[in-house]
Amino acid sequence: MRIFTAALMTETNTFSPMPTGWAAFEEFGIQRGRDGLTPTAITAPLLMWQAAAERGGHEIFHSVVTFAQPSGPTVRTVYETLRDEILRDAAEQGPFDAVLLLLHGAMVADGYDDCEGDLLTRMRAVVGPNVAIGAELDLHCHVSKAMTEAADLLITFKEYPHTDGMERAQELYDLTLATARGEVRPTLGLHDCRMVGLYFTQAPRMRTFVDGMGMLEAQSDVLSVSLAHGFPWADVADNSAKVLVYTDGDADQAGRLARDLGQTFWDMRDDVAFKGVGVDEALDRVEVAAPGLVVLADTADNTGGGAPGDSTFILARLLERGIGSAALGPLWDPVAVGLCHEAGVGAALTLRVGGKACAASGAPLDLKVRVRGLIDELRTPSYNADYVTLGAAAWIEIEGADVHVVLCARRMQGFSPMVFTELGLDVAALRVAVVKTYNHFYAAFAPIAAEIIHVAGPGAIMGDMTAIPFERRSLDFWPRCADPFAEGCLRGL
User: Fold this and answer.
1) Looking at CB atoms within 10 Å, which of 4, 202, 225, 470 has the fewest?
2) pLDDT, position 490
3) Is residue 14 within 8 Å of residue 108, measured between CB atoms?
4) Tell me: the pLDDT tens digits for 470-479?
């Protein structure tokens, strides 16, 4: 059997002013399988597929493998060039029996609201109707009609934080090859929950729901079950939570199970949807908290959701309220990092920090600081234990405030306490740590935190789902509508 693979991944916040161009993909590397794949977090699933193919006596061809940090829409020529190289490889190196694609599911480019649907549709035209096509998706994806019609299988992560990517990749490999051999006939049941939001799978009711999906998959006639959460900050028509159930040839069963699961998820909505607190409410709780580290997640400035990572809103309030024994990071500011490295450890200087990318970053802060630590490459494990780099970094202490900031040269969220500790800052000994992230930090910070608070403050990522200024996405969704399935639901707003 001959197998084709490729990976083209980014998550697009259509409200972000920062375009996703060549530099964004090159930052994480653009690999081409004909040259051999270097192990990274992005290539890991493809290398696993390669090992499985070799054990099974199959031939595998890797095309383009690349990823860009979430940001604004991808530049049209960048998307089209990468897409066309993948399609050209599929045409020139074929024929193939199976296609395995690692995609995100929420990639938007100039002129393309549904990059994955576009790529899958074109791939189907290249390889023909009888080739099995499977794609692994981030659960923060938009499932479109074009995607479901072109692919035999779409399988999303089940976990947020995304700790199960390799498990889902193995599932995709096994089912796609079984489809290619004619052993199974994946039949999709799809249910649109008409919900826009964020849902943390460590929460008790979400944990039960996710475990229930796994129990359904244990039935012999159920091939795969996914909940696509959707990515709220994308103004595209298919932005919505959707349930996907694949059975072996039983369309009625697939549809019924998808509807039943969708109803269960709908019934949980008030308990599982993200509810953050304001900046001052979070700092009020810090001031009265029992001893121990309080971790505040600055969700509005999470680079993993397309925010710049350089907002100053919470830092300014820490200083205005005189709350010390505090750390904040990672704050993206390559200019400030460069000045700190030039000055050296121990240097005192006046430094302009943050607030550079856009209005959602807030105002820059002019601070008197001392450089406490420097590193040429700050590395930290991500949610799946693979290491990511934040580039050059600096630890500064704000004079007279007992407030510490970690500055980084590469946009990255704060996955782990190593963001602080690698520079020598013992964050666990402090009163409060502000981490620029949404939920991927949770597992690493929970062991050292007395309390964790998700902050929905100002920034590029709006925590109030009813306030997202959609123009292309219709407004008939919960929580904007109490019942988005009712005719004329928007009239009650």
Assistant:
1) 202
2) 61
3) yes
4) 999 999 999 9
What residues pair up with 228 in beta bridges, in sequence order? 242
Q: Contact, 196 vs 239, CB < 8 A?
A: yes
Q: What is the DSSP string of 148-191?
A: HHH-SEEEE---SS---HHHHHHHHHHHHHHHHTTS--EEEEEE
| Backbone φ and ψ of 381, nearest 5° | -70, 145
DSSP E strand stretches across 205-316: 222-228, 242-248, 294-298
| Rounded Cα–Cα distance for residues 136 and 45 (Å) | 10
| Burial 161-190, CB ≥16 within 10 A → b, else e | bbbbbeebbbbbbebbbbbbeeebebbbbb
* Beta-ladder partners of 476: none
CB atoms under 10 Å from CB of 464, counted, come to: 10
| SS3 call for 17 | coil
CA pair distance 156, 246, nearest whole angstrom:
12
Residue 349 has which token pair? 């200087």
- Give the model's pLDDT for residue 492: 42
Q: Which residue has the higher pLDDT, 486 or 448?
A: 448
Q: How far is CA 382 from the centre of its chain?
A: 11
pTM summary value:
0.94
The answer to whether 79 and 199 are in contact (CB under 8 A) is: no
Q: What's phi and psi for 136, nearest 5 deg?
A: -95, 135
Report the DSSP beta bridge partners of residue 74. 20, 109
**Mean pLDDT estimate for the chain:** 96
Written as six digits, the tokens of 181 are: 């051999």
Tens digit of pLDDT for each residue in 76-109? 999 999 999 999 999 999 999 999 999 999 999 9
Share of the chain above pLDDT 90, in %: 95
On whether the CB atoms of residues 449 and 423 are closer than 8 A, the answer is no
Residue 182 Cα to chain centre, angstroms: 34
Distance CA 45, CA 458 (A): 36
pLDDT of residue 51: 98
